[in-house]
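Researcher: Please translate sequence to structure tokens.
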Amino acid sequence: MPPAQELTIGDLSARSGVPPSALRFYERQGLISSRRTSGNQRRYDRTTLRRIAFIRASQRVGIPLAQVGEVLGFLPEGQPPTKEFWMRASECWQEALDERIDQLQRMRDRFTSCIGCGCLSFQECALVNPDDTLGERGPGAHLLDARGPRTN
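Model: Translation complete:
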């Protein structure tokens, strides 16, 4: 027996591992779509499984859903992401992912000696933040900001 061309939300959830509530959220955000039966039940095309795989993989590497949606907007309706599509998306996000990795490494390196300035290292803080000059920038851990210290 050939597989069904359409899936219920329960089937889609079971096959993708994504809770129905998240699937409804993805639909409200325009990331996936369904048709409604005469009984107002959702029916998803089988290609939606690949879209969900793309969404989840993108989220795992830290791509915001808004950006995922922008990229999925290039796919024709009902078309699953292809290998070429995944490669193009990866190329588009390469620079942003590299910057995120750099930010996380800077945060890790700063975190070992300074909590931000909040302050757990009073001895070192006298050198890095004399007279609590970072306090003038307002609340928060300015030295742990992933973009580096802010300038006024």
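Researcher: Any highlights?
Model: The CA atoms of residues 57 and 86 lie 10 Å apart.
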